[in-house]
Design goal:
The protein is built from three helices and ten strands; from the N terminus they run βββαββαβββαββ. It is α+β, with helices and mostly antiparallel strands. The strands form three sheets. The chain has a five-stranded antiparallel sheet. It has a three-stranded antiparallel sheet with strand order 1-2-3. Strands 4-10 form a two-stranded parallel sheet. The mean pLDDT is about 90. Keywords: Cytoplasm, Fatty acid metabolism, Hydrolase, Lipid metabolism, Repeat, Serine esterase. Its main location: cytoplasm. Pfam families: 4HBT.
């Protein structure tokens, strides 16, 4: 919140052959009470941008502490789980061509939760490579996802996690980014909103040829005036 001190620490946990895992920890300190607590932990995967056509092979990380050794081991497990999930979801997508019958009297149609936003990438939105900041795209995604969730809970949803956020391709200054968000499912006290991002340059915009550059699944919950979790209604796909 305003007036609190945010500390962000990042370090490379493990370097694989051509990719690396960077661990990011965010803590907040209240200047009035001097209380410090962790507010977010994330793991980002990076690849080095090559000068030519070939990929850059990375040197191993030098491990200095017990924590370094632990994160080094866990990074391998996280990578294994991530790759396994990608294959699992691909298999589910291929098998999901049949429609299931859905009967729920008070269910809310997902059509009511669909939100679309269009953003123009300008120079302040881009990094030194000329590509749109990943954090900027995530911020825009959170906005449309939050609106989508609020149409279901009729309150102010709180973001709990961002899952499977992946860059499928770059976007640059001058691109139009189209964000589509919709509630995928509800789970008692939480809701998953899926967001898909497509990019267009001027020529692609005229021809309606989109580039799929990002997807993510955002989990929200919401609390009432007493601080209790609110139950979400069922949704009808």
């Amino acid at each position: 919140r305003v007036g609190q001190i945010i500390t962000i620490k990042a370090k490379v946990n493990r370097a694989f052959k051509t990719s690396m895992e960077v661990g990011i920890k965010v803590t907040v300190q209240d200047v009035l009470t001097d209380v410090e607590k962790i507010v977010s932990v994330a793991y980002a995967t990076y690849v080095a941008k090559p000068v030519g056509a070939g990929k850059i092979e990375l040197e191993p990380v030098k491990l200095l502490s017990t924590e370094d050794h632990l994160e080094h081991t866990l990074a391998t497990e996280r990578r294994r789980i991530r790759l396994g999930y990608e294959q699992l979801f691909q298999n589910l997508m291929q098998e999901s061509n049949k429609e299931d019958t859905f009967e729920e009297e008070d269910a809310v149609s997902t059509d009511l939760t669909h939100v679309q936003s269009i953003e123009l990438v300008q120079p302040p939105h881009a990094n030194h490579h000329g590509n749109t900041f990943g954090g900027q795209i995530m911020a825009w995604m959170e906005t449309v996802a939050s609106i989508s969730a609020s149409r279901l809970c009729r309150s102010y949803p709180v973001l709990k996690s961002v899952n499977m956020f992946k860059f499928w391709g770059p976007s640059v200054v001058g691109d139009r980014l189209v964000f589509n968000a919709i509630v995928n499912n509800t789970f008692q006290n939480s809701v998953e909103v899926g967001v898909r991002v497509e990019a267009y340059n001027c020529e692609e915009w005229i021809k309606d040829q989109a580039r799929h550059i990002n997807s993510a699944f955002l989990i929200f919950n919401t609390v009432n005036d007493k601080g209790q979790l609110v139950t979400f209604p069922r949704i009808k796909p």
